[in-house]
Amino acid sequence: MSTTPTPAQNKPLPPVAIVIGVLFFLGLIGLMLFAVMRSGDAQRDALPSPLIGQRAPSFSLPVLHDPTIRISSDELAGAPYVLNVWGSWCPACAEEHPVLTRFALERSVRVVGYNWKDEPADAKAWLERLGNPYFVVLGDYEGTTALDWGITAAPETFLVDANGIVRWKHSGALTDAVIDQQLRPLLATLGNADALAAGHTPSPAPASQP
Questions:
Q1: Which of 10, 12, 66, 196 is surrounded by the most beta carbons within 10 Å?
Q2: How far is the C-alpha of 34 from the C-alpha of 46, rounded, in Å?
Q3: pLDDT of residue 13
Q4: In angstroms, how far is the first alpha carbon of the chain from the final one?
Q5: 150 with 49: CB under 8 angstroms?
Q6: Residue 39 has what DSSP assignment?
Q7: To which H or E segment does residue 69 belong?
């Protein structure tokens, strides 16, 4: 005579398993909170970029204010430049903007804006509101060039020398201290003033151009 098997009764989890589960959950919460706190930290990317000392990835990107014009990395060669990654959607970019503007006004090096994954209309309105400190602004709505540069967040800033070699990277908002203690000393070693005097610069698009 056959009998119908009865469902196995639910057995309570042993106390050790419960403790492990709680600790795992609390660990995940802790990691999430740590990531949120670090998102606005200027030193969120403590590891040096693998690009340092290497040739900067080549690119050809449209000018934000006139997409019919494209500027390539080859055209920027011949003098150092600072590449600043920003977006109108980025709160930290707005925080660093006054610092970047003061530095750009010194005209010690070309400051190239790299507008990342931004609607052109939003980017131009942002610059109209806060001011345009850039030598030229290049747009990359799709973000394909960012992959080559290893860009993971905004703002990020790179220094590229006259030979196209990446000399420095900073993750997070620029501060006066970062510029004074890191960027300016590096620029002083590159002899950028002589290169700029030689006129190795493409013509930037006017900031007010629609």
A1: 196
A2: 15
A3: 55
A4: 89
A5: yes
A6: T
A7: strand 66-72
- State yes or no: pLDDT of 208 exceeds 80: no
Q: Are strands 66-72 and 60-63 parallel, antiparallel or unpaired?
A: antiparallel
Which two three-digit tokens encode residue 99?
A: 């610092």
pLDDT tier for residue 29 given thresholds of 50, 70 and 90: very low
Alpha-carbon span 4 to 204, nearest angstrom: 83
188: number of Cβ within 10 Å: 11
3-state secondary structure 110-147: EEEEEEECCCHHHHHHHHHHHCCCCCEEEEECCCHHHH
- pLDDT at residue number 75: 96
Mean predicted confidence (pLDDT) in 112-136: 97
* Cβ–Cβ under 8 Å, residues 100 and 77: no
Q: What is the mean pLDDT of the chain?
A: 80
Q: How far apart are CA 104 and CA 106, in angstroms?
A: 5
Give the containing element (helix H, strand E) for 158: strand 156-160
